Amino acid sequence: MKTARIYQRPKNAMQSGRALTGQWIIEFEPAEPQRADPLTGWAGSGDTQAQLRLRFPTLEAAKAYAEREGVAYHVVPAPDRKLKLQAYADNFR
């Protein structure tokens, strides 16, 4: 049986805005381990679902897709946002 994790993408440290952070993502867990290619040395596997990442507008839509397709899933809660409130004058203390 396929397993997946559903999570909400956190804001990147290099982002100032919150674009695309409200989306929920389904990522399938790898079904087989990666192995080194003897010719190139790159890591890879025959599991193509590990490359798949589906985006949904809500958590309910992502859960409904997983249940409809028969995919076992677990939801990873979004990390808490920590605001660092700072004034310009704090630079000169």
UniProtKB/TrEMBL annotation:
Q: Which InterPro entries match?
A: NADH_UbQ_FeS_4_mit-like, NDUFS4-like_sf
Q: Where in the cell is it found?
A: Membrane
Enumerate the UniProt keywords alphabetically: Electron transport, Membrane, Respiratory chain, Transit peptide, Transport
Q: Name one Pfam family in it.
A: NDUS4
Protein name per Swiss-Prot or TrEMBL: ETC complex I subunit
